[in-house]
Amino acid sequence: MDESKTRFDFSHDKPVTAEQLQEIERRVNRQVVLDQPVAAVVLPLAEAQKLPGVRAVFGEKYPDPVRVVMVGAESPDKLTHDNSVEFCGGTHLPRTGLIGYFKISSQEGVAKGIRRITAVTGKPAYDDVQARSAIVDDLAGVFQCRPDELQTRVGALQDQVKALQTQLKKAVGAALTGVVDELIASAPEVGGAKVVVAKLPDGASNETVRTQIDRVKQKCGSAFVVFGWSEGEGNASLIAAVTPDLVKKGLKAGDVVKQIAPVIGGGGGGKPDMAQAGGKEPAKLAEALQKADRLGRDLLAK
After folding, report:
1. Residue 176 and residue 171: Cα distance in Å, rounded?
2. Residue 195 above 90 pLDDT?
3. Phi, psi at residue 2, to the nearest 5°?
4. H helix or E strand, kind and range, residue 255
5. d(CA 23, CA 18)
6. CA 174 to chain centre
7. Which part of the chain has CATH 3.30.980.10?
8. pTM (2 decimals)?
9. How high is the pLDDT of residue 59?
10. 6-125 — its CATH code?
11. What kind of fold does domain 165-301 have according to CATH?
12. What tens digit of pLDDT does each residue of 133-175 get?
């Protein structure tokens, strides 16, 4: 706890849900609105441990006498199990109403089974709410709807995006099929096997490329295949594959990938019949594929 925020660590094996966070805020702010008294007394430890509803950290060593902070009661004789009573050496406000407002700003995992909630109060809490409100108002303006309609509008937009992604995936797959068919038709044959090495159009995905490799294997019977493509800036991918007959001859896709992946600033591996690599230099895909083509020809010529 400091002048700008408070943190609370507690045992919990999963993230706190949005509904649970809202309930925590509701309960805390109810106590704030009630403007309950906050009092501190110093008592002998044995006597303090008998107070109704007292909370202490298991295994913690407390001084004797110990400082006891009570919320909702002005003296120990007025305490009930509904009050908050804790051993604490910190400083506190005389009444809960002075907190003003309590707002959770974040939650995170800090260790296995331990969650941390960070919250703000007073003016920082007001500023936090104002900032969130401004974001909601801006979004409502963008979507041209009322704030309470935002969730529905965003949900509809997400559905549209998913539908477009599905259409795009189908279009990319169809386009790749045409590209790969042309590659198969023009691929040279070395040692009785087709050498199909090429850079595929940007935007291809791992799934669509693997589908095309399966098609190459079915169509060619015996083939050495290496495809490269980029899924975005700073992202380069390579997949190498060889048909079962070539695996029996000692060719391994994993060995091919290990030799060409460093060219694109990455690494990878896989099984003898198929292996994959990723790198950060898509501009060097052409160089990596040239090396793959030479490697394939050399291996098949032996």
Report:
1. 9
2. yes
3. -145, -165
4. helix 253-260
5. 9
6. 31
7. 6-125
8. 0.58
9. 66
10. 3.30.980.10
11. Diaminopimelate Epimerase; Chain A, domain 1 (3.10.310)
12. 999 999 999 999 999 999 999 999 999 999 998 888 788 778 8
